[in-house]
């Protein structure tokens, strides 16, 4: 829940866990990413995303939010640092990969906003909307990386354009918070970035202000996490990267076991797993 929910590859002390990054990206794309669809829809509806929109998606991941904007007629550009997720985004958004003509106004860029000009025309028109849908407020230190991305994106955006930030809602409104505490408990020996923390009320506003943006409205959206079975729930949550520090501090088997135990109270009689959550978004404006 990146969200990553949010950055999905946090840096921290200790050895980076060995995981199959392609399988992890596929789990994100097929299981977890869709949990935030209500958030994407609410933002696009509020900002009237359509044919006149030139959207820049920061941390675009495997591209579902970009695909939804493109289906409304928007021209979309996505940037991310995960080659595995970007490969899936290209499959979704650039049909040339399977023999069909791609839209010329869709771009997927490996890297950061500074790499966009190098990847396209020098006279790229200004973007009219920036989204950073990977939720912050659940990993210690996750807002610092987002602030840098926002500052790098600002020169590419028109004056007064909306920039949308997303974050976890209050812990008491997010059932998944109790499950994410497993990550904090297991990762505690690292005492560093990468472990879960409760979301704070002003997380989004503080990031916006540090990036030189002016807050201009916000909203809350219900985004329940629903899974077909326990295995899907474990794989989906692991795909967010929020448990990477815990895996480094212990091992994969231990994290899998304790994550499944924490999910057990949310297991329904039909075998599905259901956790109501609320996510928050902030609309800020460029100077």
TrEMBL record:
InterPro entries: Methyltransf_25 (IPR041698), SAM-dependent_MTases_sf (IPR029063). Residues 56-95 form the Methyltransferase domain. Gene3D superfamilies: Vaccinia Virus protein VP39. It comes from the Bacteria. Pfam families: Methyltransf_25. SUPFAM superfamilies: S-adenosyl-L-methionine-dependent methyltransferases. This is Methyltransferase domain-containing protein.
């Amino acid at each position: 829940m990146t969200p990553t929910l949010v950055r999905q590859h946090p840096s921290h002390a200790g050895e980076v866990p060995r995981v199959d990054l392609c399988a992890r990206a596929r789990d994100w794309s097929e299981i977890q990413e869709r949990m935030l669809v209500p958030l994407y829809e609410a933002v696009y509806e509020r900002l009237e995303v359509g044919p006149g929109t030139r959207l820049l998606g920061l941390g675009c991941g495997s591209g579902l939010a970009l695909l939804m904007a493109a289906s409304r007629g928007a021209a979309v550009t996505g940037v991310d640092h995960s080659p595995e997720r970007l490969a899936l985004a290209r499959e979704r958004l650039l049909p040339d990969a399977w023999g069909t003509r791609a839209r010329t106004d869709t771009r997927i860029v490996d890297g950061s906003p500074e790499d966009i000009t190098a990847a396209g025309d020098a006279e790229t028109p200004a973007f009219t909307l920036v989204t950073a849908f990977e939720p912050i407020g659940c990993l210690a230190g996750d807002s610092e990386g987002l602030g840098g991305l926002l500052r790098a994106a600002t020169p590419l955006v028109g004056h007064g354009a909306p920039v949308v930030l997303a974050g976890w809602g209050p812990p008491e409104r997010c059932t998944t918070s109790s499950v994410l505490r497993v990550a904090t408990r297991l990762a505690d020996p690292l005492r560093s970035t990468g472990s879960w923390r409760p979301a704070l009320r002003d997380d989004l506003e503080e990031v916006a202000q540090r990036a030189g943006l002016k807050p201009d409205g916000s909203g809350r959206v219900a985004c329940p996490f629903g899974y077909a079975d326990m295995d899907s729930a474990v794989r989906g949550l692991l795909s967010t990267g929020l448990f990477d520090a815990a895996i480094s501090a212990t091992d994969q088997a231990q994290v899998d076991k304790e994550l499944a135990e924490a999910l057990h109270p949310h297991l329904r009689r039909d075998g599905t797993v259901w956790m109501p959550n609320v996510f928050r978004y902030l609309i800020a404006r460029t100077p």
